[in-house]
């Protein structure tokens, strides 16, 4: 995912950038923290392409679960998900509806008898600085704790300490992190 640079975490921890002994562990922790924050926010935190299916709404718009939306790259529709036809992009645009990003159909409503598939570019073009700070603080705390335990690798959420294996799940987020992340979190999806 690489939302935050490894060297930023090493600087925060006062680790010499030339020393690579802990790079693997630091990278694993950073990836785990980035994924944890994206799960909390329920959306990508840096620009990415997503493809999302939805049923026709019978309305000229469909509320989108992602924000911000910077581009529509493809819209398809059909009676079955495996047989969708490409639609003309100029008939669609992204705007606001009831305070949320929405996909609008300029040529009428989204037919409720059809299934649609839309490909969008979503998320901020750059990681918001305050989100990066939360990721760095979370990763630094996790690294310091795991180093005290003698963990050298967490792999996919598990780390080996001698002959035993410990699993590291999602830890509760600090209250101040939750507050910082509020503007980037999707609360409800229309």
* Spatial shape: elongated
Please state the average pLDDT score: 87
- What is the H/E string? HHEEEEEEEHEEH
The total domain count is: 2
CA-to-CA gap between the ends?
A: 27 Å
Number of helices: 4
Question: Main β-sheet, in a few words?
Answer: 4 strands, antiparallel
Main sheet: which strands, in order across? 1-7-3-4
What proportion of the residues form beta strands (DSSP E)?
A: 25-35%
Structural class: alpha+beta
| Count of beta strands | 9
Task: Give me the Rg, rounded.
Answer: 21 Å
Uncertain segments of ≥5 residues (pLDDT<50)?
156-167
Helix content: 25-40%
What this model shows, in words?
With 190 residues, the protein is α+β, with helices and mostly antiparallel strands. It has helices at residues 6-12, 23-41, 129-149, 175-181; strands spanning 48-55, 61-63, 69-78, 85-86, 92-97, 100-105, 115-122, 158-161, 164-167. It folds into two domains: 6-44 and 131-184, no CATH class; 48-122, no CATH class. It has a four-stranded antiparallel β-sheet with strand order 1-7-3-4, with no helix packed on it. Strands 2-6-5 form a three-stranded antiparallel β-sheet, with no helix packed on it. Strand 5 (92-97) and strand 6 form a beta hairpin.
Question: Mind sketching the topology for me?
Answer:
Layout (H helix, E strand, L loop, with lengths): L5 H7 L10 H19 L6 E8 L5 E3 L5 E10 L6 E2 L5 E6 L2 E6 L9 E8 L6 H21 L8 E4 L2 E4 L7 H7 L9
Antiparallel strand pairs: 1-7, 2-6, 3-4, 3-7, 5-6, 8-9
Helix pairs in contact: 2-3
């Amino acid at each position: 995912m690489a939302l935050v640079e490894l060297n930023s975490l090493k600087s925060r921890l006062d680790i010499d950038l030339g020393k690579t002994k802990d790079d693997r562990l630091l990278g694993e922790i950073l990836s785990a923290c980035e994924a944890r924050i994206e799960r909390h926010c329920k959306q990508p935190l840096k620009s990415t392409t997503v493809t999302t299916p939805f049923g026709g709404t019978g309305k000229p718009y469909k509320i989108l679960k992602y924000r911000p939306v910077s581009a529509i790259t493809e819209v398809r529709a059909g009676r079955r998900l495996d047989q969708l036809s490409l639609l003309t992009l100029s008939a669609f645009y992204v705007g606001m509806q009831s305070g949320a990003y929405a996909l609008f159909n300029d040529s009428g409503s989204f037919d409720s008898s059809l299934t649609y598939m839309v490909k969008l570019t979503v998320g901020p073009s750059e990681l918001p600085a305050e989100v990066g700070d939360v990721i760095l603080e979370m990763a630094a705390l996790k690294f310091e704790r795991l180093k005290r335990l003698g963990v050298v690798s967490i792999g996919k959420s598990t780390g080996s300490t001698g002959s035993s294996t410990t699993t590291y799940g999602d830890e509760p987020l600090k209250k101040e992190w939750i507050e910082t992340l509020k503007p980037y979190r999707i609360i409800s999806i229309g």
